[in-house]
Amino acid sequence: MKILNSFGENDDEKVDFRKEARNLFNKLAKLETAILIVFWEEILERFNVVNKKVQSPGLDIGEGNKLIVSLKEFVKNIRQQSDQKLKEYEEKAKKLSTSVGTDYSDINKRRITLKFSDKSTDKVSVNCAEKFKRDTLNVALDKMIMDLNNRSQAYETYRKKFKFLMDLQDKNQEHIDLESVRNIIDYYPNDVDEHLVNECIQLKSYLLQSKTESYTSCSEIFWQIYEKKLVDVFPNCYTILKIFLTMPITSCEAERSFSRMSYIENKYRTTMSNYRLNHLSVLSINCDLTKDLQCDDQIKEFAAQKCRKVAL
C-alpha cells in the first residue's frame, strides 16, 4: 500500500497511472477489503493443506472423505459463530496497515422501507457490519458448505459401496457386511468372483488374530497381503483393494498438462480427437519411460501393413 500511495502522489508519473494507483489504494484501504483478506487467509489455509493431503499417494476414499467432512464442519463452525468471527476479523484487519480504515465504507445507517401486502410500510435500520456479514461473509460460507457437502456425498457413495473394506480395518467390528461384498461382485464381474465372500470372512479372522500388528487403513492391509506373500490366499481381496486404493480423491478429471499441450496440439493437429490428444499427452509427459521402449518390431509390422507396393 505504501508503494501505491507513493505512485499516486508522484508528479513524475502519468495522470492515468496516478489515478489508477490512487483507486487501488482506496480500495485496499477499505475496512471491508482488509476483513476479506483476513477471512480468506483463514479459510484458504485449511483448504490448501487438505487439498495437498487428499492428493498425496496412499490415501484412500474413506480417509479422504473424513478430511472433507472435517473441513465442512470447520466452515460450519465459522458460519455459526459469524458474529464473533466478524469482530475478530475486524481487529486483525485494522492491524494489517495503518492505512486501513476504522469504519465501514457506508458509515451511515441505511433505511430500508419494507412494503407489505396491506400497503403498509415499515422502515428497518440495517447496520453496516450486519449487512457486510449477511451479504458477503455468510453468502461465501454457505456456498462453501454446499459445495463441500456435494463433494462429501460423492465420496460417501463409494465408501458405502466398499463398506466391507471399512469393516476389515475396524478391529472393533467382528463381522463384515456380506451384502456389500455381493454388490461389489456384481459391480466388478470381470475382476472378482464369488470366492470374494469367503476370502473376506477368512481375511477378517486373520486380521483379528494379528494382535501384535495394527491395520488402521486399507493400504496397510494391502501391503501386509503383498509383503507376507498372501496374494495366492486372498487373490480377490488383493484385487478389490487395488481397485479401491487407486480410485482418485481429487476433484480434477481428465486434467491435461498445458505446458505439454503446447507441443502436442499445434496447427497440424487441430482436428485431432480428445482420445488421441490425451494419449499423446501421457506419452509426452512420461517421455523418460517412452524413450526406453523398444518399438522396432511394432514399427516394422505397421510399415508392412501400410506398404502400398504390389509384388509382381
Automatic annotation (TrEMBL):
The entry's keywords: Coiled coil
Annotated HAT C-terminal dimerisation domain residues: 225-285
Pfam families to which the protein is assigned, alphabetical: Dimer_Tnp_hAT
Gene Ontology molecular function terms on file: protein dimerization activity
Coiled-coil ranges from the UniProt annotation: 72-99
Record's protein name: HAT C-terminal dimerisation domain-containing protein
Organism of origin: Brenthis ino
Lineage: Eukaryota, Metazoa, Ecdysozoa, Arthropoda, Hexapoda
